[in-house]
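Lab notebook: predicted structure, single chain.

Context: the supervisor wants predicted structures on file for every construct in the current expression panel, including those that have not yet been purified. This is the next one on the list. No modifications to the sequence; it matches the entry in the shared construct table.
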Amino acid sequence: MMKLVSRNALSLRAPHVAGWLATALLAFAPAAHAAEQIKVVTSVSNLIFAPVYVAQQLGYFKQEGLDVTIADGNGGSNAVASVVGSSADIGIVGIKNASQAVVKGQPLKAFATGVQGFPQAIVARTNLPGLSALSGQATLTDKGALLRAKTIAVTDIGGSTGEFARFVLKTAQVADNDIKLVNIPTVAAQLAALKAGRIDAFVNSSPAIEQATTEGYGVKLVDPALDLKDQTDFEYTVQVARADVLNQRGEAIGKYLRAVQRALDLIHSDKDKARDAVFTYFADSAEITQAFPSAIRNQAWDNTVPYLPRSVKLDDAKLAKAREFFQISDKATDELFIDRRAAQAVPAAKATR
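Prediction complete. Output recorded below exactly as produced.
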């Protein structure tokens, strides 16, 4: 005999039935995919790393299903060590730093470009002896002579800025033992040291150049665009990862590069929007806000954009020039050092006017 159930009984049981049903449906429903984490480390915090800041601030990484964190490595050598030691997945570092790790047997691969050309300059204190006597036609040798027996700060003695200082001085016929290189990795510390006269010059890029010159205590002594015209059109920074990361997480690396390419497209099509994204990203950083006062932001950004590539892909000709300029060891062969797979799969850069 069928047992009848009263309406009241049904109404009492309904919440329990509904709760059970909801639990059952959730158990069988497909789980939402958690965003894949990628940890990025840059040599320092600087406008030359703008593409990752733009991609982060405008949500490009998130739209690719990635949870990206960006850290300052406090120097190129430290950033490379973070990638080698697995505390970071991707490093954006000087090609010299990266190649040195490969020569030492580390399974590090450059898989995309970072900055092309040399955005750094040597900025000297305005009261450097002999500076006022230099004419507009002064040669690199003339400028180098002023730095003999002087102290020059770089962000990484063993990295690209240290290599640049040594190259300039060698070209200017100044021996290594005729100058003193010191390691000062942050913009704020370099500016303070120059202003106080504790150093005679520094090697850095925007905003250090604009801030020192605008405030009147520094002058751009060596400008690669003028003094080394055809010698600095090379791969300067590269994006690196361990070989196992590229092999095991190729899909995630591809998504990361697609987001970076979107950022590069924006930088070259709407640089004002990209600039605003960068400085919004750094809005809570007292150090960056201090380093980029509003008076120099536009100038610093405009001076940086020409060095940012239009494509994430490594350029063979620029790689060859980098090998020559930085005297990269032949032991860092393309087979050991370069992996183009992820970048080749990224859609071509958008044409801009």
